[in-house]
Amino acid sequence: xxxxxxxxxxxxxxxxxxxxxxxxxxxxxxxxxxxxxxxxxxxxxxxxxxxxxxxxxxxxxxxxxxxxxxxxxxxxxxxxxxxxxxxxxxxxxxxxxxxxxxxxxxxxxxxxxxxxxxxxxxxxxxxxxxxxxxxxxxxxxxxx
Length: 144
Description:
Blueprint: E1 2-6, E2 11-18, H1 22-38, H2 45-63, E3 71-79, E4 84-90, H3 117-124, E5 127-131, E6 136-142
Helix pairs in contact: 1-2, 2-3
């Protein structure tokens, strides 16, 4: 399901994804287009896409545990009056304790195969907010 709401400059886009990693590939081009539409530079737009696809991957793999009956909800909103591109990713999983995450830069965690997604999102977005017990993450990107 796809819905696009647009005014003269602001926009809102919502997507419902299956809990399948192939869904992320389907959305990469759309995410890039939305970043450029909001005014991201050629250098920053790909970083936006990486942060959002990481959030989607976490929702599919860790939140919904790739259970096909569960969905992931993506909401993208551009608010030009605040120069804010906001992305919400919500899963139908049990949530997690986002206040107690291991530091992936500590020596004991450097060789782990996972555990860097939230660190990466926090490095690429201006703000990362968790709600609904960790089932919803909002990535906020401010433009100059």
